[in-house]
Amino acid sequence: MNLLYTYQKFSIFQSDVTRSFQVDFAGKSVSMSFCELLSFREKLKRIDLQKHFEGADSVEILSLCNKRHLFIFDTLDIIQLKELVRGAFISMAYQNVLV
Fold first, then answer.
1. Mean pLDDT of the chain
2. What is the full DSSP assignment across the chain?
């Protein structure tokens, strides 16, 4: 596994052998295919952080990998995860340019 990107307490690793991604959620690791990682990115994009700061919502419940995993994230976690996934996709784009 190669470290793709890390941000605060979250990390994403990429395996060239199995063609999968390992996301470390502060101690809990979840293996994802590229499609599942794309789905996770879309779920994060749909979260409206403005509502979190207005006080309407303070947590998000996300199911990942066809509902095999269920996570509860607070506002700070969501901000950090959005940055993690953004950074991981930028890193993958740079890797493709260099190859």
1. 88
2. -EEEEEETTEEEEEETTTTEEEEEETTEEEEE-HHHHHHHHHHHHH--HHHHHHTS-SEEEEEETTTTEEEEEEHHHHHHHHHHHHHHHHHHHHHHHH-
Dihedral pair phi/psi, residue 86, rounded to 5°: -60, -45
Rounded to 10 degrees, the C-alpha dihedral 77/59/68/15 comes to: -10
Say how far apart CA 56 and CA 29 lie, in whole Å.
Answer: 30
Segment 10-32, tens digit of pLDDT: 999 999 888 899 999 988 999 99
